[in-house]
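not sure who needs this but someone in the group chat was asking about 8-amino-7-oxononanoate synthase from Alistipes hominis so here u go. i didnt clean anything up, its just raw.
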Amino acid sequence: MMRETLRRLAAEDNLRTLPEIGIDGKYVVYEGRKYLNLSSNDYLGLSCSGLHREFMRRMTDGGDFLLSNPSSRLITGNSPDYGRLEMALSELFGGRAVLVVGCGYMVNSGVLPAVTGKGDLVLADKLVHASLIDGLRLCEADWKRFNHNDTGHLERLLAAHRRSYRNVWIVTESIFSMDGDRAPLKELAALKRRYDAKLYVDEAHGFGACGPQGCGVAAEMGVGDDCDVRIATLGKALASQGAFVVTDGLTRDFLINRLRTLIFSTALPPISLRWSEYLVRRLPEMEDRRARLREFSRLITGDAYRSHIVPLPAGENGRAIEMSRRFREAGYWVMPVRYPTVPKGKARVRVSLSAALTADEIRKFTEICASIG
């Protein structure tokens, strides 16, 4: 069965492999050649900013620290570094309660099953991330999908079902990971208020890169207080490890007792927590990097506020693979994205912009895009 499945995937141009690559600043090194990296989630370019050298000097001068963690947070893994990081994030988000978890997948697959139950309904955007879909599948609550960014469809679902359920959750991403477009958060917040629903926003691709002080798209749109749950990762724009939930104190306490992906997983190593805190406290000073991302987006898409994720449509898997190969020939590392990450027939090459790039590099890339077509 396994061989048959792999043969079928290969025949469909849909077989995945793990290329062994090295990272050299803003470049990928593969089979002895350097490529400009346009497939990284390091949106602020912090992994090649030199900040890690300053951080490591501080760690070396500051005494002992652990490179690993021996247990879950609820046993012996809740080091003081967790508290300092959560305090830094809470201050960034205006005093809201914060809970740090191992990774974004663990948050999205765990929070909704924890906070919902029988008698509840979840209404999720059609294009939410796979981790959220897996979370929905674990829910005892009922759930439905509304058409992507279609507030009219969402309102029809709310009007039809709100009175039949104890709680209704609206779930979306602020910036969608494969299309790079933004959710209509102001309209979603208005619907949340009109129908007395709850709002869950995944800011994985917005945190750090967007909004005042890097607080994300919800803050940029002025609807942060309407979000009952905001989640974001520390492993994308912050070039670190882990994820976190921004919510109220009661929900945080509840998650500590019900979030299985927190309770039954090993805590993050103190060195990662300290690196995250170090960057969180500097995030408000990085507006120049966020402005650079907006300028790069404008150069490619014509819209500075679309996002730093730019999909190049291919349609079929083979076309996406061929586009990726031609970009590599030109010196750029961009990867094909295929089913099940995107729907069948919607394969693409996904470009992720980084503040580590230059405007000249972006202009040259747009010229290559035009030649590839």
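also The two ends are 38 Å apart (CA to CA). if thats useful
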